[in-house]
Structure formats: C-alpha cells, structure tokens
Specification:
The protein is of the alpha+beta class. Helices cover 30% and strands 19% of the residues. Strands 1, 2, 3, 4, 5, 6, 7 and 8 form an eight-stranded antiparallel sheet that branches.
Length: 320
C-alpha cells in the first residue's frame, strides 16, 4: 500500500485540535489579564483627588474705623490738659490730631495728638492694625496672635505661664501608729524646736495663692524713682502693682508697658502703652508725659488709668 505524502498546510483533525487549543489559550490569557487588572470603577476612584484641606476662617474685621475721630473731645481734654491754655486755632488743631500715613487704610491706621506748654508736654498716639493671613491653613486670628505675642515679648513682658499637668500622688501604705514618745510619731516630740527649713517652707506655701501668676510683675523695672543723669536714661523700679504686666478683661489678650526715663538734669518722661487684640485687630494706645525743670516724675498710676480707660473705649468701639 502506498504511503500518502505529507503536504504542508494541509489540515486534519490534529491541526484543528491545535488551532482550537491555541485560540482557547489566547482567549483565556486575555480574560485572565482583564480580570486581574483594576476595575474601571476603581480606576475612577483612584484618579480622584483626596478631600480638600479645610480653609481657616477669616477674621471678624474687614475694615477699620477712622482713628482721629475715634477719641471723644472730652477724653482728649483730659489726656491733653495743656491744650486748654492754647489759642483757639492751636487748640482745635491739637484736638483734631494728625493721621498716620498708610498705604491701605483697611489694613492699618493711626493718629497722633500733642499739646505742649513751657513746663509739660503730652503725646497721645493710636495705632490700629488689621492682620490678614495669606496662608489658608492659618486663620487671621491666629496670625494676629503671633503678631501680638512678638510685641509683648519685645516689650520684655513674659507670656503667662501655663498650668502644669496634674499628677496623681503616690500611693502609700499606712503603717502602724507609733507611741507618743517614739521618734517615728507624727511631728517632733514636745519641746523640740522646729527646724528653720520646715518653718520657711510653711511660710512660703502660705504666701502662694492660685491666680497670682497671671498678674505677677514681669521682672521688667522701667518705672519709679529716678537717679540724676544726663540725657534720657531708664529709671529705677516701678511702684508695686504698677509694673509692666498682662491685663485681664480687655479684648482677647492685653498687656501694659510703663517706662520712665530722665531727660536732661531734672526732666522726666513717662511712656505708658496699652496693647490689646480683638480677633484679627491689634490696637496700641501710647500715652506720654514729659516734664521740664521739675524734680517730680509724671505719676504712673494716673497715666496708666487714662491709657487703660481709652483702650476700653476703643475695645467697645470694635464691638459695635
């Protein structure tokens, strides 16, 4: 029997089987590749950006009031007593004040008043700044607080201390009571003198009261008695209770600075500043009195009271 010759390209059952297996394998690979990839919905989710970062809230104030007209004339008469002796035109000029030169009156404004006599002169300066944060993650109020803290530290007034964390006292195991004459009994035996260290500790503990830290003197001593000197030089310590310090009940935060200097042989100048922050606005009230040819320094209590009264008036104006 003659063998049939193999012809390339001829198809048979074997060839058909190979083709089917090849197509099936390719189809399976394709299906496997599609199923192992990321679904279309998942791709859409991954492509989306994450949640937007929260934007810090803006400050309460968007504009500022006109400064020279913010102080009532009755207050100016009290702060500038020398103006009463001036001629009518000069007196009116003194009460009008001079506005500070600024490039944006919605961001910063100020005004200065002055009245001079041969023996005494007064200066009143008002500065109002609206702080704006250009960082969307930092609010205007937080940025204003940063500016305020720098001012306070520059004045040499430390920030109020934070309260220390509370700790649980260690647990002690009660011991058996000792006999009255025993050295281990509570307290020394009758007739034994108290040690100096124990007495001092008890006195110190009794003198410390909660809340003293906020109103404590800052350690800065720019006011008080003076020493003869040429030029303008700082004087001695301030009267007790009138030291530069943090103030309560004025705006969100506030402080007072008081500096006394000698001018010439027997002249004196006292400068009192009250600075407070309300939301994103920082207000600075500076009040100065200078005497000539007088051995007495300007009264610290009087100047501080006048400056604080004006600061309270301006704080009320911001609340309107």
């Amino acid at each position: 029997m003659q063998r049939k010759r193999y012809t390339p390209g001829r198809t048979g059952s074997t060839a058909r089987t190979a083709v089917v297996l090849t197509l099936g394998l390719g189809l399976g690979i394709g299906l496997t590749g599609c199923s192992s990839g990321t679904p279309a919905d998942d791709i859409a989710v991954d492509a989306k950006a994450g949640p937007a970062a929260p934007v810090a809230p803006p400050g309460r104030y968007r504009t500022l009031f006109e400064p020279c007209g913010a102080v009532p004339q009755a207050t100016l008469k009290d702060l500038l007593p020398g103006a009463a002796a001036l001629a009518d035109a000069e007196r009116d000029k003194a009460y009008r004040g001079v506005a500070s030169v600024t490039y944006d009156t919605d961001r910063r404004v100020g005004c200065t008043w002055k009245a001079d006599t041969p023996d005494i002169s007064h200066r009143l300066m008002l500065d109002i700044e609206r702080v704006v944060s250009y960082d969307t993650a930092v609010s205007d109020d937080d940025r204003a607080q940063e500016v305020y803290v720098r001012k306070q530290l520059a004045a040499g007034i430390p920030l109020p201390p934070t309260a220390p964390p509370t700790t649980t006292p260690p647990t002690t195991t009660p011991s058996a009571p000792a006999s009255p004459g025993s050295p281990t009994a509570s307290g020394p035996p009758p007739g034994t003198p108290q040690s100096p260290t124990r007495a001092a500790t008890g006195t110190a503990g009794a003198a410390t009261k909660p809340g003293d830290a906020a109103d404590a003197p800052s350690g800065k001593t720019p006011t008080g008695a003076t020493a003869p000197s040429s030029g303008a030089t700082p004087s001695g310590p301030s009267p007790t209770g009138l030291e530069p310090r943090v103030l309560e009940g004025l705006g969100n935060v506030a402080y007072l600075d008081d500096a006394l200097t000698t001018v010439g042989a027997n002249g004196h100048q006292r400068a009192v500043s009250v600075v407070f922050r309300t939301s994103n606005v920082i207000v600075t009230v500076s009040y100065r009195e200078q005497t000539t040819g007088s051995a007495e320094a300007p009264d610290s209590m009087e100047l501080q009271e006048k400056a604080r009264n004006l600061a309270r008036l301006l704080a009320e104006r911001l609340e309107e």
